[in-house]
């Protein structure tokens, strides 16, 4: 008897026991990749909601910073959804696309926070419109600036952890997907495309 793997099933023909075993083994290996689809879905919707909130803020007055933030968040959300679809279609570029997207997102967050820290140190505190209140707040100005610097520094640290872990997860899932496509018979890959994560 030959130990060669079974060929692809005839079109419209019944699956043999060997074919069914191949499909079951492929499905088991595919489960290790499905987490990336769920993560991309979560990141995409979360970022899209934040972008929508920023867009609503534009209705109360155009602000260049808010416009840039809305555009950046929308791009990140769009790329997350695009990467999710790539994973579902077993596109081996999905991991690199999503991993790079998280690193870009981390870079944008870091730039924004560093700019905000600079503003907290050197920009004048906003006026309340009441001179007596402004004079009273001058005593608390160093504390307020320190709190702002601490908050933005914490955001950078948390973003490095979260976006870094997301990027790592995507790159690992992308490598597993590439191995899966290379090691799985083409007829099974075509059978499972699309459908990952559904």
Briefly characterize the structure:
The chain is mainly alpha-helical and 198 residues long. The chain has helices at residues 17-58, 64-88, 94-122, 131-137, 141-183, 186-191.
Report on this structure.
This protein is an all-alpha fold. It is 77% helix and 0% strand. The protein starts with 16 loop residues before the first helix and ends in a 7-residue tail after the last helix.
Write the layout of secondary structure elements.
Blueprint: H1 17-58, H2 64-88, H3 94-122, H4 131-137, H5 141-183, H6 186-191
Helix pairs in contact: 1-2, 1-5, 2-3, 3-5
Provide the low-confidence segments as ranges.
none
Gyration radius (Cα, Å) is 25 Å
The secondary structure category is: mainly alpha
User: How many DSSP-defined strands?
Assistant: 0
What would the average pLDDT be, to the nearest integer? 83
Note the main sheet. Answer: none
Distance between the termini: 39 Å
Order of helices and strands: HHHHHH
Shape: elongated
List keywords for this structure.
single chain; 198 residues; mainly alpha; 6 helices; 0% strand; elongated
């Amino acid at each position: 008897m030959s130990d060669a793997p079974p060929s692809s099933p005839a079109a419209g023909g019944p699956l043999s026991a060997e074919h069914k075993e191949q499909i079951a083994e492929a499905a088991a290996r595919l489960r290790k990749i499905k987490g990336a689809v769920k993560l991309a879905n979560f990141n995409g919707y979360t970022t899209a909601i934040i972008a929508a909130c920023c867009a609503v803020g534009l209705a109360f007055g155009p602000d260049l910073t808010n416009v840039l933030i809305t555009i950046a968040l929308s791009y990140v959300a769009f790329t997350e959804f695009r990467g999710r679809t790539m994973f579902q279609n077993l596109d081996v570029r999905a991991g690199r696309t999503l991993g790079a997207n998280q690193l870009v997102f981390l870079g944008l967050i870091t730039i924004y926070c560093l700019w905000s820290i600079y503003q907290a140190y050197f920009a004048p505190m906003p006026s309340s419109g009441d001179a007596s209140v402004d004079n009273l707040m001058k005593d608390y100005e160093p504390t307020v600036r320190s709190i702002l610097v601490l908050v933005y520094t914490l955001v950078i640290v948390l973003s490095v952890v979260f976006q870094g872990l997301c990027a790592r997860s995507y790159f690992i899932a992308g490598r597993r997907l590439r191995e899966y496509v290379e090691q799985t018979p083409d007829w099974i890959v075509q059978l499972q495309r699309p459908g990952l994560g559904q």
